Amino acid sequence: MTNFPVAKIRADFPILAEKIRGKDLVYLDNAASSQKPNAVIDSISNLYRYDYANIHRGVHTLSVRATDKFEAAREKLKSFINAASNKEIIFVRGATEAINLVAQTYGKANIKAGDEILITAMEHHSNIVPWQMLCEQTGAVLKVAPINLQGELLFAEFEKLLTDRTRLVSVAHMSNALGTINPVKKIIALAHAKNIPVLLDGAQAIPHMAVDMQDLDCDFYVFSGHKLYGPSGVGVLYGKQALLEAMPPYQGGGDMIRKVTFEATEYNTLPYKFEAGTPSIADVVGLGVAIDYLNEIGMDAIAMYEAELLDYATEKARQIKGLRIIGEAAEKGAILSFVLDRIHPHDIGTMLDSLGIAIRAGHHCAMPVMDFYGVPATARASFAMYNTKQEIDVLMAGISDLIEVFG
Amino acid sequence: MFEDLRDLYQEVIFDHNRNPRNFRVMDNADRKVDGFNPLCGDRLTLFLKMSGDIIEDASFQGSGCAISTASVSLMTEIIKGKTEAEAEQLFEIFHKMTTGKDEEIQLEAVGKLAVLAGVREYPARVKCATLAWHTLDAALKNQQQPVSTE
Fold first, then answer.
1. Can you state the percent helix, strand and coil of chain B, rounding each to 5?
2. pTM to 2 decimals?
């Protein structure tokens, strides 16, 4: 094992010391949501205790303080993903809202009847349904690039589906159900060669690797704070400034305006044009603190450590008879989806829970992926920087035991 | 192993999960209704053969977790020979047994089904146990459309 400071990190996450059903918690549901370090938890209560008021409004001291902290978080997010400008960081509720925003603004303005939107067969429902809704509204057509049994995008098929009618490509950077990391730079290069913009759903990728907007050159990148050790209810839409400038606003209301009369409204500049209403101020500040925390550890170090965890878990899982791993892409993040012969994932979930082990059992909001593999659901263990090989041992022992009990 | 779960996963449940009873397609069924739990993907098709208002035969097909498989397997056994009214009454009692809070559980009234009483302590699993019965309820009311727990 590397000298990754996992013990020190664990000590920063109070919930990891909790007992669940009398057992030490083994939290392996990080792809659904990750736990929060003290620094994040404290930052939220401290904001409400000492620095809270509405932002971008008052001249009074508290409003100025809250605004400064809020905008400082934007600056942190900008640096974290290496965006060109703070104007490209739009705070939203999460990745889902970000995709809906792009569909209903960029999509409605630029996508017409007969146009095509290209996604992949491994998308989360949040990167399927907003496009279906847009297609219904506009008469556009949703195209789906297929995957192979390893859970990898069939690139040649993807290339064929990129036609003169394609107006937007929207793909997961990393799949939540399979762990697959898509060849996004190749996808973007190919799409850009045809002047097609690309949205990356980064909800799963961003907790596990460094992402760099200048290097990726994607047009939109979306993610949620709560999978990134930050609070729930806040996420980010990154968009290239020129695209965002040209897009109509999403919701109307306060903060997104410059001047309102009953005859006409002049919209605010970026990023405020897309931030109508009072945002989740404390949660944005908390997300900024989560970014500080991650920067201290380093995303590259986290990626290396988690790759070790995944390799270890995969090797152990392969030794269990009757266990089938769902998703074995060559490029994969720290997610182990699996099924067991004749044991339903929900039974696996309940049995492991009784041992203090939290995994996800279900369709992972990716029903088309389940259909592709011919399973109703999978069990999914998803790892984070605070997990250990010992915890993986506990998981694997639990799986072996429940196989025995089911007989 | 799994001592804490003994109330939920009793041996009868494992038995019915391994060897579900009345697990077959019924070609001459009078009633046929699909039940679906979109949360976990459990699917079943329930078949009933009626003789007047008496359930002469019951069978099912489908796939689900141990709780839902055992629940539908046990149900097909217990409802055979019952009138529609008796089956509806069992549904009521079963529903109370699995979802009720302080109501007295009429364990003696449900017989073997009592092995499923443990789900009331596991809110996430209650629907696994009740899917079969909601599907039966629809079949008894002669509804054609599929039943969904959500």
1. 50, 20, 30
2. 0.94
